[in-house]
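Predict fold of Large ribosomal subunit protein mL37; 310 aa.
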Amino acid sequence: FAGVRQAQWLTKTKLVEGLPPAVQDIVDNPAHGLQEFEERVKHAVSHARLWDTTEVAPRREQYCPVLFENLIHICRLMTGKYPSLSKRMLARNCRIAATWERESILLQVRGLSGVLMNSMTPIPPVASKEEILSTKEHVLETFYPIAPTIDLQEVNVYKELNDTGFKDGYPYSHPHTLFFLESANVRTNRFRPEQLRAKMLMFAFGNALAKAKALHGNDPKVLEEPVVVQSVGTDGQLFQFMVFQLNTTDLVSNDGVKNLVWIDSDQNLYEKAQCVPEVKKKVVTKPAGISGFQPDTFKKFLALYLHGTV
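Predicted 3D structure, encoded as tokens:
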């Protein structure tokens, strides 16, 4: 059952399909030179999928993190053009804790939230004040007679914890983008794309809520300055992109302003990696290599990285 619809109810969030205009404009603007990186990205995919191993073919748990590091390295090449990109920091194995009340239920997001890119400055709001106010009209989906918390783990809460995972005074204090690598080799151990998107939403929300409470205190309110946190999920081939905007910490009732999330789902970076040539009757029928490369998927990855800077 666990999916985006359930996560929307838990986080009081309205879903918008696709990327927000602020990010799509970066993708579409040729001035940023995103198309210049196509050959580098093809090389990065080939390195992760074909070359970075002594085995016949690398396993997902190996090539997925290697591909991520390669793509981040390409993104960092933009720092010469946009020096403020140097005011970023990648943190691994970050712990997050956020607590909120929804109807009469006390909820928590706790645990490791993937690889987190932090920034010295926050991402500006992506929805206008008018768009935020219009969410009052949005009706959240209910699951009656099923409880929306049906598959959540029940624990005894001794302390209502809200913790960004960073000490006061940390210069890179604003969460920018979460990266989730679903790199388990066995399919049953990996999150399905819908489950991954739900996880991405819950942790983007958790990071935004913890930050909002650190900035503005625990009193439920509509935020004057919404908190934006992005999320990228991948299994080393298929990518999920998400931009979350926390508009309110008043989450108890279904009324009033809702939070917003934009999701661009199931974007392939490439169709297939042929690690070993296919040979029939001593003739190579399929050479080794990457096929079906989709440059727009990397452009979206890079646009999320640049968002808040350009």
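The mean pLDDT is 89.
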